[in-house]
Amino acid sequence: MRARHLLFVFALALVLVSAPLQCVFATKEASRVVLLNSDNFDEFVHGPMRHTFVLYCVKWSRQCEDWRKTWDRLSMSQSSKELRDVFTAAYVDGDKYPDIIKKMKVKGFPTATFYTPIYPEGMEYSGVREPFLLDSFVFQFS
């Protein structure tokens, strides 16, 4: 009986000690996503020779949270491609910058729009949220 009690206490202690360690060793995914605001939006979206894929989101949306992870992956995969010097994966927080949301006529969240010199008004992406499909979309319209 005493052995079971000690085993239970040991297991409980192990769980309590390992939980904070998981947080310490959990790494944030690498990202090159640029956070856009009212000051830098036009430079990135309408700048010459820019290819900017903007994710318009709000923090309270679970779908946006999932899209942000995919956006991090897209930013990293594109950093090794031919357009890495002109491509930007960007993010606009719709709660912080409603002026940008209104100006760009964003109707819902999340919205992903790709701006290029050929498509300055932007092309809305409505496909599946998969990094390889987003890479293909960027390649196709760049």
From TrEMBL:
Gene3D superfamilies: Glutaredoxin (3.40.30.10). It comes from the Eukaryota. GO terms for cellular component: endoplasmic reticulum. One of its GO terms (molecular function) is protein disulfide isomerase activity. InterPro entries: PDI, Thioredoxin-like_sf, Thioredoxin_domain. Pfam families: Thioredoxin. Residues 33-129 form the Thioredoxin domain. This is Thioredoxin domain-containing protein.
